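Homework-ish question, so no full write-ups if that breaks the rules, but can someone show me the predicted structure for this set?
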Amino acid sequence: MRRPEAPQPAGAAAAEAFSVALEGCADFAAWRLAARRLLAAGIPPESVEWRTPEDPPGLFGGRPPPEAEGPPLPVPRDFVEMAELAIRHADRERFALLYALLWDSQTRPGLLRTPTEPRMARLAGMARAVRRDAHKMHAFLRFREIGTPEGPRSVAWFEPEHHIVEAEAGFFVRRFAILRWSILTPRRCAHWDGAALAFTPGARRADAPAEDAAEDLWRTYFASIFNPARLKPDAMRAEMPKKYWKNLPEAAVIPELMQGAEGRVRVMLGQEFRAPRRRQKAEGD
Amino acid sequence: MDLRAKLALLADAAKYDASCASSGTEKRDSRQGGLGSTEGMGICHAYAPDGRCISLLKVLLTNACVFDCAYCINRATSNVARARFTVAELVKLTLAFYRRNYIEGLFLSSGIIRSPDYTMEQLIRVARTLREEHGFLGYIHLKTIPEAAPELLAEAGRWADRLSINVELPQVASLKRLAPEKDLPAIGGAMQQLAGRIAEAKEARRTARRAAPPRFAPAGQSTQMIVGADDSDDRRILGKGAELYEKYGLRRVYYSGYSPIPEASSLLPPAPPPLLREHRLYQADWLLRFYGFGTEEILAGGEGGMLDLEIDPKLAWALKHRADFPVDLNSAPRELLLRVPGLGARNVERIVAARQEGRVRLADLARLRVPLRKVAPFLLAPDHRAAPGLLDSPRLRAMLTTPGGFGAQARPRQLSLFS
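A: Not a homework solution, just the prediction itself:
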């Protein structure tokens, strides 16, 4: 970490160290406001320390940037979209990377439109990782229903890699507005009471229910839709990495499905043709 | 039979339908009431050990069937046990799975029972009950019975996001032999009807100002062809696919490698599913739809109407058109970049964007995660010129046939089944 006494580049504001204390780990609006103030004051990236509630307090001595805001800075829409995503990344350098890009784009106008530039490629990688994390949350989060004095409640335990709970809570509101639900994660929890969203600090896995009555049927479905003649476990793991398995009720049956597959296929390939029974009736019920 | 046993049987019977898409429909959400949402992008909620996505609850209403299609586990003369869901059971199951975030919705198909109209009515009842009585806003894919009455097809499109009719086999002779009750002209007629209504509803959505336009299968229609159950070559399969895309505006043609089934028919010799061939057909289909290739161009990469199994169809094409290469990374038009093996459509867009800001080098492509070894022989860049003679070398193909790709993965496993 950079210390205030570290050598500073020459320049009017560069001699001084500044510190931006963000109140959230993924607060894009707060970062943008701070970045505009820093730019307006001509403070270069190497003089800025970015802090979130996750950083230990009191280590850095910089003062907050001056409050005067410069004019809005036109940046490409793609860059804004990537920045909004990258700000949720767990990488502690995310704020500094974004500000450095913004700073350099003042003297190099095409920078933010050059996907092959190394820092832009890094930013794209961070945005991609956050998008994937969000997509996996939409996909692999599983609710379990419990009874409460106010009626049924759906509770999920999920472990995202990045700071995405606030950003993705809206997806679950749009989908499950009719339910009352809680999404518990190690860093942040979201709760929906049917009318409003609330966020609370992180929880533990043991705080979520351990089972749900529908899971047995779901495992039955998962096992039956699997085609043993097409066994491709690497393709499965590429899309559903093992780290998710402990929170997926269906993953418990994967080992036995894989073990049994070859035997089932051998039987199908070696089967002798049995004469068909008489043509069945059309009904079926 | 209890619900669990029925689910096991009727999901098993549905798994030979490759489609599991839940994308491309209208946007809906539940903040004004109802349950569920669709936001355009499909979601794969799980992956089975066969590597396939599980997005929808894909089941049959019943596996009883009056048809006797040789390739089908549910054909009339198969000895499998039969079962049938009630409408209430299916509705309850769909909602229970959806509320727990297991699925995006329902893909409901069925064996033909009593009559095409009766069967279609049963499928429609499930979809209508979900939508009308339970305010279900998730995704619904209904299998469409081609011989059903036009007003039933019209109603199916009101409730469903996607409709599909499976062609299954790309030529009439094969259908006659393996699926004697299937009627190819009737299938074409029904696809035509659906295409008309889909286009009409789409047009109405674009122009309507006040009244809500009539809804009809906003995610369009799709079909499936079985690969390897008859002697159709890739030319016939891709040709049929291209014809279907063009005639009926299909969203997707799925290729399903014929997979051995329990209680198989003696008309079909038991063999492991042709996974690699299926994979190459999907790649070719992609080139047709997004890369500006024509069917015959793609087939020119292979031999005798079959795609090259060992290498992907774009590379196969390029190796037979070496005179068109190398192309200059900084001056080639987009259409030519799209033909470079190893360059995907999205990266071509990025390269075109980066070119506006300065010269693009081969080293830049590494940052876009382009497979350099594969693209290098076909490109000219400020920091790269392929070794003299490499492009014309007979060894080029061998050099580019990488171990560790899909080909290497899929084949030994197929072969090991015989050991």
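Now go work out the reasoning yourself. Hint: The helical segments of chain A are 28-40, 77-86, 94-105, 118-140, 165-176, 215-225, 233-239, 254-269.
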